[in-house]
Amino acid sequence: MEFTFFGTSAGTPTKARNVTALALRLKREKNWCLIDCGEGTQHQLLHAPYSLANLAAVFITHVHGDHCFGLVGLLASASLTGRKAPLTIYGPAALAKFIPLTLELTDTYLCYPIEFVDVESLDQDIEVAGFAVSTIRLSHRVPCHAWHFVERNIAHQLDQEKLCQAGIEKGPLWGKIQQGEQVCLADGSLINGRDFWRLDNEARSIIVAGDNDQPELLQQAAANANVLIHEATYTQAIADKVGPEPMHSSAMQLAKFAQQVALPNLVMTHFSARFGGEGKFSIRTLQQEAKRFYHGELFLAEDLTTYQLNSKGELSKLKP
Amino acid sequence: MEFTFFGTSAGTPTKARNVTALALRLKREKNWCLIDCGEGTQHQLLHAPYSLANLAAVFITHVHGDHCFGLVGLLASASLTGRKAPLTIYGPAALAKFIPLTLELTDTYLCYPIEFVDVESLDQDIEVAGFAVSTIRLSHRVPCHAWHFVERNIAHQLDQEKLCQAGIEKGPLWGKIQQGEQVCLADGSLINGRDFWRLDNEARSIIVAGDNDQPELLQQAAANANVLIHEATYTQAIADKVGPEPMHSSAMQLAKFAQQVALPNLVMTHFSARFGGEGKFSIRTLQQEAKRFYHGELFLAEDLTTYQLNSKGELSKLKP
Q1: Are B43 and A42 an interchain contact pair (Cβ–Cβ within 8 Å)?
Q2: Which residue of B has its CA nearest to A71?
Q3: Where Zn(2+) 2 is bound, by residue (chains A, B) (predicted)?
Q4: pLDDT class of B16 with cuts at 50, 70, 90
Q5: Which of A81, A102, A248, B95 is the most exposed place for a label (fewest CB within 10 A)?
C-alpha cells in the first residue's frame, strides 16, 4: 500500500507546498484513489506515477477551496486526455451543485459520466480499488469527514482444518469459498466464504482525515489503524494566538491523541503557509512539538513524496 | 511596459507550461493587470515579482476553464494574504454567476469587495493602472474578446509654441493644462489640456487576444499596436487534421495576418499540449511555420518569462 502527497499546505499554496490532495493505492492494483483535490492537483499529478485514466474514485473531505478547487480542472483534463470510464465522486452534498454548475457556466463537456455520492447518504462501505472505504464525521467550520481505507482481498489460504470441522469436504464448493462467496451447504445452511480464510497478513488500514479540531472523534477507528494522516495546521503556541475559530488541530493536540490510542504511524500534514522559514516558523518546530507527546513513528508529509506501508504494517518514506 | 506569462499551454497544463494567464504593467506603475486566470495562476505568481495586493484589475477573455479555473482560488488567496482593496473583474457575464456561486458553495469569504463588469456592457475605455483598455470581439466556440491596452499618462511637455499661438499666457492655467484638465479661457471658450501637450513618445499599445480562429477581426486595432499576443494553438498541418471545430488559429494563419497589418512584434502563445517534444511536435515547428510568413519580430511565449516593450516600441525578452 502506498500514498503520495500532491499538497501539504493549508489555505494557500507556498513555493514548496501545494494545497491538499493525496493519492492512495494498493501496490498490486492499477487503480488509485484521490482524496481531496486542491487547486493545482492535476499539475502535481504530471510529476507523479498516477494516471487520470486509472483514477478509481475521488473522495472529498469538505468543501473548502484548498481541498476542492482543483476538482473541475482535473475532471476536464481527464476528459481532454481521453478518459471514457465513469467516475464516482464521494463528498459533501454541495459538490453535486458545484461541479455541474461550473461545467455548465464554463462550457466544459466531459467525455465520461460522473456520479456524485453525498457522504451523508452512505450506509455501507464503498468497495473500490481493493479497499473498503468508510467515513468518520469530524469537527470543522463546515461538515467534514475522514475517509477510512481498509485493505480488501488480501492474500489468503483456505482454512482446511476449519472446513473439515464444519464437514465441508474438498470439492467445487472450496473454489467458491476461496473467492469469498456466500455458499449454500447440503443441509441448506448459508456460510460466508471469507469466514473460512486464513489471512497471510492482517488487513491494513489508513485513515485520511480532513480538517478537524477534535482528533478524539477518530478514537474508535484509529485504535486499529496502521496509519493516520491528519492535519497539524499550527504549533500549540500559534493555535493559542489564532484562537479556536479556524477549527484546526495543533501538532501537540494531534500527537497527544495519537499517543493515547497507541497509533503506530502518524503522518502530519496541512501545515499553515507561515511554516517554511526558520526559527519558530520552521517545519521542525511542528516535528519537535509532536515528538514530545508521541512516541510512535512520526512523519511530516512532503509534496510529491511517496510513503509505503509494507505487509507488516511498517511505514517508510520512499526516496523520490 | 512589461508583461509576464503565467501560462502558455492550451487546454491542459504540461510539465513545462501552465494554462493561460498573463501579467501586464507599466514599469512606472506599482499596479498590474491580470489577463485570464487558468488553474495554477496563483502558484505561478509565487515565482514572479507581482503581488496580489497590487493587482489593479482582472480581465477574462472567455469562460473556458483553461482561462478562468484559477480565478476563485486566486481571489481567496488574495483575501487570506490580507488584501482589503476592492477588485474589479471584467469578462463574460457568466463570471457574475460562477464566482459568487463558487464562493457560496465552498464557504469562501473574501475580505475585500469584488465587482463584475460584463464585457458586453462596456461603452467606454476602462482607465486602470495607467492604461486605457478597450475590447475587440473575437471568434471562438463561446463569446470571446481581446483586451487592448493603450498607455495613458505618458511623459509630456507643454507645447509652449502652441500655447502662445492660442494666446494663453504663462500663468496658473498652464498648471491645469499640464495636468490634462479642461480649461475655460478668458473669452469663455473651453480647451482640452491634452491638446497642448507635446508627447515625449507615442502612446504604446498591446493587444492581448483570447482564443480566436479569425485574426483578421483584430485588423483595425492591430494596425496601430506595438505588440499582439495571440494564440497559435496548432501548426497548419495539425489544424487541418483536427478540423475547424475547436475554432483556434494556426501559426501560419496568425503569421500571415500579422505580416499583412505590418505588426512590429508578434507573440504567439496558447500552444497545444502536444507540443513540447521533438520532431513535428517540437515548439520549433510552430516558430518555423510562422517565420515563413511573418518578417517582424517573432516571440514564442514561455512561462514565467518577462518581455519588455521600451519607449521606442522595441520588444525584448528579459533573462529570467
Answers
A1: no
A2: B69
A3: 66-67, 211, 270
A4: very high
A5: A81
